[in-house]
Amino acid sequence: MRRRSSLIRSAGSLLVLSLLAAACSSVSQQDLAERYGGGTNDAGDAPALPSLELGDTPPTDGRPVRSTPLQPSWGDCPFDEDEIEVECGRITVPSDDPAVDDIQIAFARFNAERNVADDAVVYLHGGPGGSVLADANWLYTVLVEPFIAERDVIIYDQRGAGESSPLPLCTEAWELDPAFFGQATPHRELRDDYHEALAVCARRIQRQPDLDLSAYGSAVHADDLVDLVRALGYRKVNLYGVSYGSRLAQTVLRDHPEFVRSAILSGVYPIEDNLIGSTPAAFEQAMLEIFAACEADPGCNELLPDPVATLEAWVDRLDIEPAVVPLPWDDQSSFSFTLAGDDLLSILHGLLYSADGASLIPDLLIDLEAGDRDRLERLAVVGFSDPSDVAGYLGAQCREEVPFTSPADRALAEQQTTMWDRINLPPGLLGGDLIKACQPWTEIGTADPIENEPADWPQPTLVMSGAFDPITPPEWGEALAARLPNATFAFATDRGHDADEGPCAVELMSSFVDDPTAALDLSCLDDTDRLTLTNTNVTVIDRNDPELEDSIFDIDPTDDVEWVDMRLPTWPADYYAIEEAYWRNVDMYDGTVIVVRAGPFDPEELTFYLPFEVTGNDFEVTAPPADAPPGWERRVFETDGMDIVSYVSTTSTDMNVSVVARDTDLADLEQRALLPMINSVDLS
Asked: For a designed S-S bond to 337, which of 91, 96, 325, 330 qualifies (C-beta 3.0 to 4.6 A apart)?
């Protein structure tokens, strides 16, 4: 199931349920020797493992650099190009085994506004197994704009995911979702059913002769990146890696440093840190940062004086009496999401990935204490996960992390003694849940031990961490930066896993890439507070009642334009030029949108704003309310959960005004927004 519109626009990686686990233990040489070297040598010492000197060819799972670069093939972009200067294509990476399919690596190159620098910026997305290419137009402002003035920017999907020869889906897990999320049974009691579904998937995928599941680790991903860089004609590039992408960037710096001019690592996942044992500790630390911000804010502190106790009470209360939230499953059906204590914790963990999401956490608890569950129901999608696209993730984690997890970390991953430990329960593939999920994936194999050993490199590196990162805690980034000979550490007190976002981060990244050898001015970090909360008043604000101005249109609807600008002044609304619509934006998960179009009625354009893919475009003509003005036809598109009401002009002027909203909000919005709008339009 694909999530689109406001969910992709606002949440980004939040919709991918925590595809990383968080633990903080390095594997010692002794541990690795016992596991892979057969004990000790005659002197009683652990056998020496391969060391890495800069410039050496490392003994990894990767391959040597090709003598002849691959050639790209060019084609259409898998996203709406609008007026962006971009070209898209693929490279074909040949398989070493004739029985195994070649790999297609899909990419987009955004061309520099001025051809000044010959070293592009290459974005490495998170995961592993995530993707970014199909949503590139939504993410343009974040990923491309900071660098595009003088440099090309390249984004691509890593092998096995997105547009790059995606691995098969675990549909067995997908089919389990409605039952899994639709009952009040605690997640720990459903763990066996969940993992059996993943095991059935593992056995099915591993029987496919055209797949080599051992070829999806970080070293191979790094080789793919070098193939792509060389195919596009660059001698050196600037790496920009986020989350798992930061680990992949480190692998490139270790294995292929000659192709790297500089590196930005955000939400840092160090090679040497194991992500299995300390997810709960990272989660707790991040939540306490949010609660400290609330304590420092007089309005928040008054309404939420003991946030930990409040959260514990609501986790217990939802365990006893879960909230039932209808969620759209596709364009024809929905199911009731039974939201218990485990799900509330999953929602909070997901919100911590971005500052916008984290700022909602105090509001959510304040609303619950006030008896208002509306925000909780809107945020339910954050706790809902589609675990079907997991093969690429497991291909790396089961190969590179689980085999190197110490007994102590395994014990931490399995324990269930605190509220925070519950984040390791399914379906998140975190901690002990990840260890169990890896058991049936026997064909993935085990990485070379060097894949978990720290590496050094001389290239200038900007390391960025956020104070309330729930998955890659800031201590990891600080330790990595301290160890490297040419690194700068940027610590953002107002960010989570999104340390690379916000005006200060953009300023730092842009300045760094312009001149990586210059001392970086970090003073903008001093101007940031812990976190800007969205609700700092003594009372909770209800912002769902728009008051319309007398004239809401800046231009005549008969003008030769495609979209009409409008104003709803009391909404905290934003106009998104790339979507050409106004979103209500009560919070980042509010999917309510009003679209005003001067032009023919286009049903597909409107159903695009639903948070799921639809297969039909049949709008039903229905009778308008008695107070609707003449000259308009009322059309309705109904689904379970989200509906659309459109008013289409029946005069010679092509115009339509529509609202997309939850079915429980639609009637009110039609009366308060749509009817006043169409009454204000002169169709003569």
From this structure: 325
